[in-house]
Hints:
- 19% of the residues lie in helices and 41% in strands.
- The chain is of the alpha+beta class.
- A twelve-stranded antiparallel β-barrel has the order 1-2-3-4-5-6-7-8-9-10-11-12.
- Strand 7 and strand 8 form a beta hairpin.
- The protein is globular, with a radius of gyration of 16 Å.
Amino acid sequence: MKKAGVICFLLFNLSLVSAQTIESGSRNTAGYIKSDGTIENKSHATVGYIKSDGTVENKSHGTIGRVKSDGTIENKSGSTVGYVKKDGTVENGSHSTIGYIKDNGTVENGSHSTVGYASGIKKEWAAVAFFFFKIE
Length: 136
């Protein structure tokens, strides 16, 4: 029985190692994005998923949208709700700038105020976490 407990403990900790931390503007942990696209809040409760094909799901695996390879973000009906440009600019569906994801992982709102940090996370994934799942 002890052996099973130790294995579970090690597997849980290994899963944390592969997760990138999402931090608030004050550098407090706000959540995590695991290498498989699982989005967790700061308590490690799953709030959603970003699948390898770009599908965005809620915690119950219901499809809520899609991140296309060109940075377009769509809702589940296929309507465009946002864009993540190659330079990290995040726009809503009307092309109004709502934020920025910097190369160093700093996340800014449309006024260039820092709202968080997502170092080592794909810009598209960071945009989905901060601007669409509202993890802050």
